[in-house]
Amino acid sequence: MNRTDRLYAIVEELRAVAPRRRSARELAARYEVSVRTIARDIDALTQAGVPIYADAGRRGGYTVDREMTLPPLNFTPAEAIAAAVVFDRADGTPFAQAARSAIHKIVAAMSARDAMAARDLANRVQLLDRPEGTPQPVPSVIQDAIVDRRVLRLTYLDRDGTRTEREVEPVLFATVRGRYWYVVAWCRLRLAARAFRVDRIIHAQATGEPAPTHPYENFTFRTCDLIDRAPVLS
Question: Residue 145 to residues 68, 151, 209: CA-CA distances in angstroms?
Answer without folding.
Answer: 24, 7, 10
